[in-house]
Amino acid sequence: MSCVMEKQWYVVHTYSGYENKVKTNLEKRVESMDMKDKIFRVFIPTEDEVEMKDGKKKTVTKKVFPGYVLVEMIMTDDSWYVVRNTPGVTGFVGSSGSGSKPTPLKPNEVEAIYKQMGVEEVKAKIDFSLKETVKVKEGPFADFVGTIEEIQLDKHKIKVHVNMFGRETPVELDYNQVEKI
């Protein structure tokens, strides 16, 4: 059975007040159990609130979903086990019963959480490959044509070599600044 494993966001229920401990513990377990290729990000949605205390404004960071942590992962038996058995975790949200796999969040749900926090997650579908020729759409190098030399998935950037004054010059650009030719 060949199925493409995709990383998706899952909601993990924690003991109340243990969100930060779970995040720390899980990140340590990912490192020590070598699960970096299956468990990517652990995220506690927060937002800043302004409170009045003793007549003074004070900004306090509050958890958007107390008792919950979001985990970006590829769901396998191993990754499920690592997350499920992290101290402070009581289970996944969206799983019915002890053996069944949980339901991932839909992309628009993740987007809504980021928006609520005031964070726009850049969703870059990378449709480029190394050594591909592209045209720069905007910025100081607009209309230059170059070759992709490096793709930085985590930063949503690519390094393109453009010909400037007869020389190959490396330029770092956002994905949305280039287009296929």
Automatic annotation (TrEMBL):
InterPro entries membership: KOW, NGN, NGN-like_dom, NGN_dom_sf, NusG-like, Rib_uL2_dom2, Transcrpt_antiterm_NusG, Transcrpt_antiterm_NusG_bac_CS
Outline the extent of the KOW domain. Answer: 127-154
Gene3D superfamilies cross-referenced by the UniProt entry: 2.30.30.30, NusG, N-terminal domain
Query: Does the UniProt entry include the keyword Transcription regulation?
Result: yes
Q: Where in this chain does the record put each NusG-like N-terminal domain?
A: 6-117
Q: Does the keyword Transit peptide apply?
A: no
List the Pfam families hit by this protein, alphabetically. KOW, NusG
Q: Which keywords does the record carry?
A: Transcription, Transcription antitermination, Transcription regulation, Transcription termination
Which superkingdom, per the lineage? Bacteria
Q: What does this protein do?
A: Participates in transcription elongation, termination and antitermination.
Record-stated family: Belongs to the NusG family.
Q: What is this protein called?
A: Transcription termination/antitermination protein NusG
Q: What is the primary gene name for this protein?
A: nusG
